[in-house]
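G., before I forget:
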Amino acid sequence: MRVLWNELKKILTWKMLFLLVLLNSVLYFFLIEFDIEHFPNGRPALDSYNIGIEMIEKYGTHMDEEEFLDFKQAYDEQVKEADQYLQSRREFVEAGLVTYEKFKHFDRDNEELNALHSKVMFEEKEVNTFWELQERERLIEFYDMKDELRGYDNAQQKQRMEELIASKKYGVYPEVVIMNFRDFIGNVTIAILFSVVLVISPMILKDRSRQMLALQYTSKKGRNLFKTKILAGLISTFSVITALLIVYFGVYSLNDTSMYFDVPINTFIGNASWYDPTFFQYILLCVAAIYLIGFVFGLLAMSFSSFVPNSMALIGIQIPFIVGMIIVIGGPLMRYIISIWNPQWLAPTVYSGMIVISVIFIILLWRREKNRDIVL
Amino acid sequence: MILVKDISKQYGDFTALENINLEFTNGLYGLLAPNGAGKTTLIKMLATLIAPSKGEILYNGKNIVAMDEDYRSLLGYLPQQFGFYKNYTPKQYLLYLAALKGIGKKEALDKIDDLLEKVALREVTNKKMKKFSGGMIQRVGIAQSLLNDPKILILDEPTAGLDPKERARFRHLLTELARERLVIVSTHIVSDVETIANEIIMIKNRQLLYKDSVERICATLDGHVYETTIPYEQLETYRRQFVLLSEKQERGSMVIRFIHKGEAEANWLPLAPQLEDVFLYEYRDDIGEEV
Amino acid sequence: MAMRIVWHECQKAFKSPILIGLLLLFTAFNVFVIVDNSYFKEELKIANQLVEKYGRKITDESLLQFEKDLQDDLTALKEITGQEYQSVYDFLETLTFEDQNRYSEQEWRFIEQLQLKEMYFSMANDIDASYAKIDIQKVAEGTIAQSRLSGNAEKTLLREYEKFSQRFEEMKQNGEHKEWFFAGKAYFMHSFLFKTVFLHIVIESLMLIILSTALITNYEFENRTQLVTYGTTRGRRLMKDKLGASVAMAALLTTFILVATLSTYFIVYDYSNVWGTSINSAFNWEYNFPNIAWWNLSIGQFLSGTIAIVFITMLLYSGLTFTLTTFVKNSYIAAILMATFFVLALLIPGFMPTSSNLLFITSYSLSLLVLNTASSFMGSSGLIMFKNFEWMTTVCWTMITFVLCIFSLKWFHKKDIQ
């Protein structure tokens, strides 16, 4: 235990923690801040977000035909409201835009009307009605198309879509929240990936280049210390990931999306997936995937650390792996982890493959360490 | 008891040691050889850092590699070069190594106090090691090798960087330690071990040359070591003819000490051979090469 | 003597297999990116042909000639299809799926060529109308509103836009925009070369340079040879050689990547007749606003300028990494910090008050300079549109780097070596 504690202290030094904070502050402002600061991002995203909450509060996480009729009725009422509003304003009456219908289909070539339209849409921020109507129309449209297959590339996708329709899992809830979460989690994963590699990489190389091995390997603990170092590395990986997740999800809570947590992933617009977790379960899935990526890259970092000659080689050799990972984080391994637009087997296979390879790698290195001559 | 059986070590084409057989019991062994003779290789094999290409090393009949931590918990080892953490104090550093050696923290704290006293580093117990001189680092190294009260103590060039006073204290410490353990000291400085070693081991051309007491090794040159005074002009002739061990000037002439295995001349003064003489004689080729 | 030492120091980087491996991997990746995007490279020949046939400048006469030639082509089309069309697009619109097989491959090639020529022709005809619509004042207001500028910052930017407005008129007068180039809205060649390809070059060179500089600078301490090397006759002046070697390696690495990548690029894409075309060509208009430089630069000059910027910047980054590594003494931390600072420099303007000129001053950073090569020398690049942006940034940072390097060398001279 004390040996482990000592190794941990060698990894998580104050210097390293300071560097970790610095790196994450920079990455936060570079990658993550946008998805927090600008959520919902303008209009009609804001209205989409609000109407979504209204839908969940009124109808729960699943909308049946009757509830949809209620939704439509709410729309009709709001149209009436809009009509009244337009009629109450002189400039609109003068321009002939007395009903919402006319307002919607105004002549875009007419500069005067254009200015009037922009004024109410963009300048008078307190008028929500028109943005909301626009969003409601979009949602109604999606509901009306709920039974249609919306394009597919292969038989599996088609089958899955039919399955979803058959089980009435229609994509009708506004997708702003899930899209925002995807961007957020992808960037968080990149920040965590960098952090893990930063913290874990130097540990084994350091003892080697400081010629500590002769002393360490002749103590009672002997070469088993290598295993303790790996364990310490994994614990540090876990701590770094957990701490960063707490911080980043703390920040994420500012987006105030908990109302959506119980909505099944498949019922968000354009979000057909191979599995059907709720939004909250989906978040947990992503978190699990982050831990996996973290552990795999922690193990890889330790592996490289056990044989590269110097710290520049240590960084250099990891660049291709990190770049490759960032590319797939943006795609099938994180942001679209269970989306039907990637083959169902892809993510599980790649994750298992990565785990197997990194574990085999470290086992091979342990075997090598057990028998190798400590010459220098 | 350690038994070195038929050990060879090869690095690719290069042979570092060949067919070494040795037996160690309690007491102090001096491993004496010039640099590059394979001393450190032998020592590292005894410390399980390097595996022999051929042969094995046994402790009480058991292979030391197979004994694993049972062997290492008996072992204290001071490498020729060893690492330390610049920002650690000797106390932190020793506590870390004590943990690796499986010593409980309380026990370790007492032991560390005791050892730092022994190597005269008491005052700097809590000073960072980056400010330390080479001699101080070396003494921390000696202290760490004694942490686990080892039955087998292996020291590779332990006196490097120590001043004469420290050296004397260290010799004293070694004699005390060797009373109840096996101590192997590797060195190329004859005076370090000459007076205190029970046995001297010499390696030459990758093979074992001697393993014997100082007296008996010296006896191999009995009657062959002489001293004489010659004029400076004859020095070259003598150098060519005999193995010169030392030369010094005295009142315009040269006093030389040398080895000759044949008939002695009248003005030669026979002397008792010293370990240093054997060393210089045996490794004379190396000396020649060095010049 | 000093040269030999510098050479020895360079070898320390050369001998790192990972550095060489990365260099080759990066180069291969760039070649892949360029070739992967080349499905339209045949179509680019049209622009070259137009220059050959009608000259680089688009004049009323040459357009007239072009129109005549198009009429001839339409007559030829009539012969192929047996029907008369006003435009090849009319033909394509009425084309049914079954009809497609009626024409031979050669005929199809002719039709496609004609289609491209018509596209270029109509774009050339639209130039005056499109440029007449551009109101620099409006652009300035848009930029200010978007970035929420006020106070001094607003004033500064407005003043610069006023200058730019003059330049815009001058450019129109010169007819710099009326020269043939690849259709920007169709192929985005400017963005592809100066944004995508150069971004790869810059990021890759930067990574290699940070690694090699940190490696060389800290080599003795990592290999525990510092006592020997800094105790020689050369002594601590060795650090000067290390700086020289780092910069030389930076030059070498950047040159290798630049040459390998750009020669691939120009082998794949045919620029033979458009080197002289102005970068301000209306055909180089890709997004909302055309590319308009402060000077009348040809494509070749613009490319040379961009290469010079990248090259100088990379050398400066080597010097900065050298300074940082000298102070930090740990090459791992130095490399990480250097990468962090690179990104930080991009963020700093965002933290500045939008009413203050600090916003612009902090934008004069190497990171922004080298990541925006597509809009170097341009007045159409938003908050970094300033005419002096490129040379001011380069000169200022060269001075800063010089001072830092000299300071770090002086500091190292007095430093204890343990």
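The mean pLDDT of chain C is 90. Chain C has one domain: 2-42+157-414.

More on Monday.
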